[in-house]
Amino acid sequence: MEALSSNSPSMEDFTHWVRTIVVESSEIQTQPISSPEFDINLTFSFQTYDYNWIIRQDSRDYHLHNLTISPITQKLISLNRQQFSNYSETCQILFQLLQYWPVLDSTRRISADFIWRRTNIGHQPNTGVNLHFHLATHNTNVLDEDEEEEVATCGMVPASQSSIESLEKRIIEHGRSCSICMDDLCEGFSMPCLHVFHGHCIKKWLMINHNCPLCRLEMPTTDDNADLYLPTCS
Predict the structure, then answer these.
(1) Is this model's pTM higher than 0.85 or not?
(2) How far apart are CA 210 and CA 155, in angstroms?
(3) Do 101 and 173 lie in a common domain?
(4) What CATH number is given to the structural domain containing 165?
(5) To which H or E segment does residue 119 belong?
(6) Residue 16: alpha-carbon gap to chain centroid
(7) Residue limits of the RING-type domain (predicted)?
(8) Residues 95-107: tens digit of each pLDDT
(9) Which residues contact 110 (CB under 8 A, 6 or more apart)?
């Protein structure tokens, strides 16, 4: 198992939601090529970890209030080894594949570079490559002890049924994918923030968590103010 991570700040630096990235790769397995067209199989998986910390006023120690871990989303992509013959073209291909993942552009570039290096080191031309690429986003929130009640509401709280039903269906341009399941989008349902997902994906998500999977926009948790979050038509 190999890991690549960004530099993480000390706990004292956390005053709001901060993202650190961990990239993990299983050992590359080689096998005889079964098809002349596809000899590089990349399995992408993604998961988020939400940490809520409390600063104790008496000791200024940090206490982990709760940890929420999202389900793993996964996607398999098969590519021709010839597409990996040029570094710039390889990074461009991988960057496009990762463009709808909920991570920063800099992370996509680092990830593309990481995959290119792992698939081009010491492999014979007559063998295929299977690479499992796992990206985890760690969100850390730190609040004072007197804000603990607010933190307690930051867990897995479902959105209200009326706000889920108010999501609007949209036709999607070619080449986009759902950031929850990573499959292609032909049509989807729009959040008030205009992020679009498969209907069954986002509705299942909102029945567990009232935050947008990408930008963390909060959907109503009661029907009293659901009308404030009606989708905006473009």
Answers:
(1) no
(2) 9
(3) no
(4) 3.30.40.10
(5) helix 105-119
(6) 19
(7) 178-216
(8) 777 766 666 667 7
(9) 4, 6, 21, 23
* Domain finish residue from 122, 155, 188: 155
Q: Identify any residues that bridge with 142 across adjacent strands, giving them in sequence order.
A: 53
Of 18-27, 37-46, 177-186, the one with minimum mean pLDDT is: 18-27
- The answer to whether the CB of 78 falls within 8 A of the CB of 41 is yes
Do 151 and 161 share a structural domain?
no
**Which tokens in the block code for residue 184?**
């292609």
For residue 207, give its domain range: 156-234
Give the 3-state secondary structure of residue 31: strand
Which residue shows structure tokens 């000791």?
59
Question: 167 pLDDT band (50/70/90 cuts)?
Answer: very high
